[in-house]
Amino acid sequence: MAAVGPLARVARLSSSICRSRTLDLSRCPQRRGVASCVDPAHGLTEEQKEFQKVAFDFAANEMAPHMAEWDQKEIFPVETMRRAAQLGFGGIYVQPDVGGSGLSRLDTSVIFEALSTGCVSTTAYISIHNMCAWMIDTFGNKEQREKFCPDLCSMAKFASYCLTEPGSGSDAASLLTSAQQKGDHYILNGSKAFISGGGDTDVYVVMCRTGGKGPKGISCLVVEKGTPGLSFGKKEKKVSASCSLGAAHACVQLAKDHLLVRKQFGETLSNNQFLQFKLAEMATKLVASRLLVREAATALQENQPCAVSLCSMAKLFVTDECFNICNQALQMHGGYGYLKDYAVQQFVRDIRVHQILEGTNEVMRMIISRNLLTES
Q: What is the CATH number of the domain that holds 363?
């Protein structure tokens, strides 16, 4: 009998997900009719459309109905994420020999965009978990890959990425956490901040200094929960993160639906030309953002010389424009947009940090301009 890999499981389980719960269309804008001009499936292969559909269905059935509760009660939805891992979403671009799905960066961006329409902050953590698993898969030795990756891909264990420190954020090369080798182990000293999943996760991928000053003196250690000396501070009250495209897609749908039903001065808002034009601008920026992300993902996968600049452009442009899209959608809702009964306000809160996270957009501008000015 042939082995069933993660991708095969995704295709096989897609129909069962659709039947798992009754779809609440009022909470799940991603599954209603989508205008062809903003259809996120445009340009994808049939295989990509299949796992995109699985991700959209999972977002609609397993994430969107709980998004507000997870936010209000600060819940880390372990069982929901493990169900996502059963579909191959725990190690999307990890190699199959250690349990991963072996997909491309473009495939990954398609999946994260779809999942984030259900819950941006949960998808943000899943994206970080995937990055940690990929780092161990790519840079770890055979023993490390076989020890950590299978449990991470199944999400039997969860991972966190530890880079930011109280005194070093965007200037990551100035980090002070140090590691000194003593025999067959390292002594790690320092503190980290803003760790997604910190305290709830099992594996910590820690960036630390083992050499001199600057980026060349930095190494990466994997630290397991329970290691002597590892401790956690208080849980911060913070706005959640990542996956701007999915949030913007959901907000365009929410804004469109609101304009079609909300009446002012005896007619629906959809008849107001100013709002029609605003919606058109939102849709245009959404599609432009999506195209840039997919172009950058392809460049990264193919290790193109322009990959760093394109990824920086995507991070800069998409996080700015998608926040503007969500913010405009809230504005279109008027006072209703500020009520927690309406999902649009949570999308706005969840994606504001994207302009700061993973290198501020000011740093992205530095990277892009440096590349332009140093090219011969």
A: 1.20.140.10
